[in-house]
Design a protein that fits this description.
Elements (H helix, E strand, L loop, with lengths): L1 H17 L10 H10 L10 E5 L7 H8 L6 E6 L2 H13 L4 E5 L11 E5 L4 H13 L3 E6 L3 H8 L3 E9 L7 E10 L1
Parallel strand pairs: 1-2, 1-4, 2-3, 4-5
Antiparallel strand pairs: 5-7, 6-7
Helix pairs in contact: 1-4, 5-6
Catalytic activity: guanosine(527) in 16S rRNA + S-adenosyl-L-methionine = N(7)-methylguanosine(527) in 16S rRNA + S-adenosyl-L-homocysteine
Protein name: Ribosomal RNA small subunit methyltransferase G
Function: Specifically methylates the N7 position of guanine in position 527 of 16S rRNA.
Length: 187
């Protein structure tokens, strides 16, 4: 818990100058950000390696790396296309000695093989599936944190994608959803 709190303090400091998360969400850090991210571990089965696409402020990736710290074979790739966010993430990874690698680049261009691909607040499902497809094709399970419009996003995405999915309620927010995606291919 001390490492999670150290991350929270670094986030508060960095957020004052780079707006990583909505400042009104910081007082509810534990539920809104930490617990929201942590709940993914319960859906990942034996998944030890993760790619967090559009890692931004580190949700869910940094939280997952903190919780996986010390587990054999655990590693999280924090993928983001903006250099300033990557610098923040690298500072956190280094300071907290996390089993994580920061990747500054476009998610869909990476050749990383992982057990689980995830994202939170990155893009509507139709675009997010394009970012995640290379990981899913290499065998990753897709677990996405979505909001109250998750069902509408899935309907819109089916116009462009064929996939199987499950929609589960979030334990951190009654409006939130966890979306699992399998068998992903373009229409």
């Amino acid at each position: 818990m001390a490492d999670v709190d150290a991350f929270r303090l670094r986030l508060i400091e960095a957020n004052a100058v780079m707006n990583l998360v909505g400042p009104d969400t910081l007082p509810n850090f534990w539920n809104r950000h930490a617990w929201d991210s942590a709940q993914l571990l319960d859906h990942a089965g034996e998944g030890r390696t993760w790619a967090d696409l559009g890692a931004g402020a580190g949700f869910p990736g940094v939280i997952l790396a903190l919780l996986l710290k010390g587990r054999a074979g655990a590693h999280v790739w924090l993928v983001d296309s903006l250099g300033k966010r990557c610098r923040f993430l690298q500072d956190v990874v280094t300071a907290l000695d996390l089993p994580a690698t920061v990747v500054n680049g476009r998610a869909e261009d990476q050749k990383i093989k992982v057990d689980v691909v995830t994202a939170r607040a990155v893009a509507p499902m139709e675009r997010l599936l394009a970012y995640a497809q290379p990981y899913v094709l290499r065998g990753a399970q897709a677990l996405f944190l979505k909001g109250e419009k998750a069902e509408d996003e899935l309907i819109a995405a089916r116009k462009v994608w064929h996939f199987q999915s499950d929609l589960m309620p979030s334990r951190s927010d009654p409006r939130g959803r966890i979306v699992t995606v399998r068998s992903l291919r373009r229409v």
